[in-house]
Amino acid sequence: MTGFDRCLRRLAVWGSGHLSMWKFNSRVNIIDMPSPGSLIVCNHTSIWDFAHLLRALMPRYDERFLATGVQFDKSRLRGWLLTHAGVIRKNQGATDIKCVRELMSAVKDGGTPVVYAQGMTSFDGRPGWRALNGTGALAKLLRCDVYACVVHGGFMSSPRYVAKAKGRVDIEIKRLYTKEQVAGLKTDELQRGIDAALDFNDWDWQEHEKVPFKRIRLAKNVTKVLYKCPSCLREGGLKESRYEITCPACGFSCRRDDYGFFHGSDACPRRMDEWTDLEIASAREEISRPDFMLKEEMSAAYFRQDTKDKPVPLGAGTLTLSREGLKFTGAGGSREIPMEDFLFLVLDDIKAVMVNTQTGFYRFEFKNRRLMVKWFFCHRLIKAGENG
Distance between CA atoms of 344 and 92, rounded to whole angstroms? Predict the structure, then answer.
């Protein structure tokens, strides 16, 4: 590590840690302080989880975070800064051998790798995905102590769909396994233990803590996730005003209080996770049908992995999701992505879904963006069934 790298990392720690304190009112509970050369596995409540961990461990700067290739590729300057800050590139949604090797090297050098094992930020205050299957195997490969960092209130402070809403964030760090315990446990036992340790529900936490959050009353973009009317069950038709969600089809309406809970018509769920449970139950019924298929018009492009080649435009066409995988059909032909070739759909929360494979990634831009999260829920359910 060069002197410049050390200065950059210290600056990042100072800036991010104080951001967590000032913007999110974070509180820290360190039950066990991670030792150098250990692995820290974290839940993933929001894009600011890295700042909360840095705040908890200030003034340490030996953390080696993973970041998706999308973050590195946004600009050359950004990629250069991330590299010098010691961030390890991970191609989200795809197996990445190079990333694993860098993690092993980091542990050997006394660094502290930080892995957001759930793979993506939360959609509804709960894990966006279970701890990825290779997490237990990674702990075995690294042969080091394993710690868990669990953030509560992070989703409510900064949901995927809206700007920050200051309230409070609680950060807890504790040791899960010593390296001797890691050596003695089976991979699937480690996997189950990590998955259980990282489970969270911000609404259960809020029921107990009752923390008011600024601007959480605002309804802007909430219907990106809450796309189904709980009264008439119509999808993609909900409307937002500044503080109210309504359904023109049946007259349903609701508002949120300062704690994020919903109040309104009789059919209104009180909590966001309860609302998405209605959507997930409907999606589960849909994918159980023999003829299940989601279909949307969109444009697409293909990016080759680890090259500076320009993306290959696939033009306008139709994307379908079935239990077999994805298929894009356009004027230039069709592309099929079998279900086993990718882990999950990566949403940008604006208009596009990215799909990573071993050879490259696809970007699909929806014309109708109202049901993007439904695609994610359906795919997650299919993969959950596939994995037992």
Answer: 9
